[in-house]
Design brief:
single chain; six-stranded antiparallel β-sheet; mainly beta
C-alpha cells in the first residue's frame, strides 16, 4: 500500500447553481494549505476558500474522506464531494 496525504487549498466562486469550486492547488503542508486558502479567499470573484487534506492509496486510487483544516468565507459545509 502506497499511502499518501495530500494537502489542498480550494477556492469557491458563486455560480448559477450556488457555490462552485475553483482550481484546487496542492500544497506541501497543512500550514501552507491554510495560508494559501486564506489568500485565495481574498481574490476578486472568490467568495471563500478552504484547506483540506485527503489520505489515499496511489496504487488503488482509494481515498478517505476529506478532512477540513481551515475555511475562509463562504464554503460548503459538506466536504464529501471533494
Amino acid at each position: 500500500m502506497s499511502e499518501i496525504t495530500y494537502f489542498v487549498a480550494l477556492p469557491f466562486l458563486l455560480g448559477d447553481e450556488g457555490l462552485v469550486p475553483g482550481a484546487a492547488e496542492e500544497c506541501r503542508t497543512p500550514i501552507q494549505a491554510a495560508t494559501r486558502a486564506e489568500a485565495l479567499s481574498r481574490i476578486e470573484h472568490h467568495v471563500g476558500a478552504l484547506a483540506f487534506s485527503r489520505i489515499g492509496d496511489l496504487a488503488t486510487g482509494d481515498f478517505l474522506d476529506a478532512k477540513l483544516i481551515k475555511k475562509f468565507g463562504d464554503v460548503p459545509d459538506d466536504l464529501s464531494g471533494l
